[in-house]
Amino acid sequence: PVSSRQAFPLPSLPRKQPTVLVVCGPAQNGAIGLVCARHLRIFDYEPTIFYPKRSPDPLYRDFTTQCEKMDIPFLSYLPTEVQLINDAYNAVVDAVLGAEVEAGEGREPCAAILATLKHVRIPIVSLDVPSGWDVEAGSSGGISPDVLVSLSAPKQCARRFLGRQHFVAGRYLPYDVQKKFELNPPKYPGTECVVAL
């Protein structure tokens, strides 16, 4: 769903050095991060992926292979010295934990990743639900992203989002799903797949 650079209209992403660190968790949100990295590469950004706990799911393995074949580098470890991340990248895409998080999901390596991301000074773009947030209640010690890209529709926790920009990527949400959950999606201009809220 995050298929254009319109999802990342950050002034801090100059075209001269459009480096983005995409941090992926082991579940569905991590797979979405892999897809995001692929799209960033297509739009001439320079993504690097940190994906420490790879899923055995064949679809997720296919996404990983696609990224590798696009020459997107994978980090073998996430620097714990935050200044190294701040100096090397213009933004971080948070695809660590998402709406599917279950109890106990905060265990390693996710807990260490979140501890590091809480201290970066470059913009963080969270996909669907900011990592460490409860999908209903909102933040409970999770990260504080600058941008939130809600997938399909904003989750309940988005009410507590205090960052600079909030987008929704849900243009292709089937009408029966919209009706079933009584969703009122925004109007998408032209051919845009993402719209600012």
From TrEMBL:
GO MF terms, alphabetically ordered: NAD(P)HX epimerase activity
Q: Where is the signal peptide?
A: none
Q: Tell me the domain of life.
A: Eukaryota
Which residue numbers delimit the YjeF N-terminal domain?
1-185
- Gene3D superfamilies with a match to the protein in the record: YjeF N-terminal domain
> Can you name a GO cellular component term?
mitochondrion
NCBIfam families on file: yjeF_nterm (TIGR00197)
* UniProt name for this protein: ApoA-I-binding protein 2
Which species is this record about?
Answer: Eudyptes sclateri (Erect-crested penguin)
Name of the gene: YJEFN3
